[in-house]
Every structure is written in structure tokens, then in C-alpha cells.
């Protein structure tokens, strides 16, 4: 597999911010959105919170052969009813897809953050649904729930 998942330090902020432009471009197929006058997509709201002291947000970068190939943003969400981890954003550059890196990186993230999980995709993002159902099914050996709600496909499990 030959990739590295690295907890993103403050020195990685610009890397994640720049890769986020590629991610938003890919994702624009499902959510619309246009670039601003600068030719860039608007900044990702709340990205700075991933480096705030005491934050319930976790940023990771992926590298292969010393090159950045993606990032993963994880949130720990606490409500009165439940506490769970969620994949906020998950991005691997196209040339590195279909190599098992996404699955391996997701499994590594799940192993780093034990507890309840909720992973969701937009209802119209069929490739993401296929990826997450297959990845989570393999990780949990089929022990997860899958539902549709408010235009989203949601998988839940506990590890």
C-alpha cells in the first residue's frame, strides 16, 4: 500500500487548504457551487477549528512517496442524545484512487477513533455510497446499519 496517514499539524494547514480546492472541485458535481472572482472556490468554513486547542475535530493528511495525495477530516459530535465520530471530509486525488488506499486509510482512521461512528454521503453521490458501504461492511464484517434521511445516505456502527 505504501502510504502514510499523518495527523495534520498547524504546518499542514496550507496543504489541507490547497487540497481542499481540488476536493471542492470534485464535489461540485454533487452540490453545485462556483469559483469566486479569484478563480478559487470559497474557503472551507470552519477549517481553522481543526487546529484549535481542545477541539473535537481531527485533521489528517495522506502521503505516498513523500507526495501529498489527500486528507481526511474527522469530527467528534456530542449532542444530548448521542456522542459519535463522523467523517467530515474524505479526499484522495484521482490518480491514487482504485488502489485500496481509501479503504486502508478509512480503516486506520476508524482504529484511531474508537466508539460510535456515523458516516454519511449525499443521496446523489452514488460513487461515495458504494465506497463507504463496501469499506464499512468490510471493516465491521457487515455489522453496521445503513439508512436514508434528509437527502443523505448514513452508515452507523460501533468499533
Describe this structure in words.
With 159 residues, the chain is an alpha+beta fold. Helices cover 29% and strands 33% of the residues. It is built from 3 helices and 7 strands. The protein has helices at residues 13-31, 101-112, 126-140; strands at 4-7, 57-64, 67-78, 83-92, 116-122, 145-149, 152-158. The protein has a 7-stranded mixed beta sheet, with helices on both faces. It is globular, with a radius of gyration of 15 Å. It starts with a strand and ends with a strand.
Radius of gyration from the alpha-carbon trace, in angstroms:
15 Å
Order of helices and strands: EHEEEHEHEE
Strand order of the largest sheet: 1-2-3-4-5-7-6
Task: Give the low-confidence spans.
Answer: none
Largest sheet at a glance?
7 strands, mixed
Please count the beta strands (DSSP E, at least 2 residues each): 7
Compute the average pLDDT. 95
Task: Count the DSSP helices.
Answer: 3
Strand content: 25-35%
Distance between the termini: 23 Å
| Derived structural class | alpha+beta
Molecular shape: globular
The helix content, as a percent range, equals: 25-40%
In brief:
The protein has 159 residues and is α+β, with helices and mostly antiparallel strands. The protein is built from 3 helices and 7 strands, in the order βαβββαβαββ. It is 29% helix and 33% strand.
Amino acid at each position: 500500500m505504501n502510504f502514510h496517514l499523518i495527523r495534520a499539524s498547524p504546518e499542514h494547514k496550507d496543504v489541507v487548504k490547497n487540497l481542499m480546492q481540488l476536493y471542492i472541485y470534485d464535489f461540485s458535481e454533487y452540490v453545485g457551487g462556483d469559483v469566486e472572482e479569484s478563480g478559487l472556490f470559497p474557503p472551507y468554513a470552519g477549517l481553522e477549528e481543526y487546529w484549535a486547542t481542545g477541539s473535537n475535530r481531527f485533521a489528517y493528511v495522506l502521503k505516498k512517496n513523500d507526495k501529498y495525495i489527500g486528507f481526511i477530516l474527522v469530527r467528534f459530535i456530542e449532542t444530548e442524545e448521542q456522542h459519535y465520530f463522523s467523517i467530515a471530509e474524505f479526499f484522495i486525488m484521482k490518480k491514487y484512487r482504485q488502489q485500496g488506499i481509501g479503504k486502508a486509510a478509512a480503516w486506520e482512521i476508524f482504529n484511531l477513533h474508537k466508539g460510535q461512528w456515523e458516516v454519511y454521503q449525499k443521496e446523489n453521490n452514488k460513487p461515495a455510497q458504494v465506497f463507504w458501504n463496501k469499506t464499512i461492511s468490510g471493516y465491521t464484517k457487515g455489522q453496521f446499519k445503513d439508512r436514508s434521511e434528509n437527502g443523505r445516505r448514513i452508515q452507523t456502527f460501533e468499533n
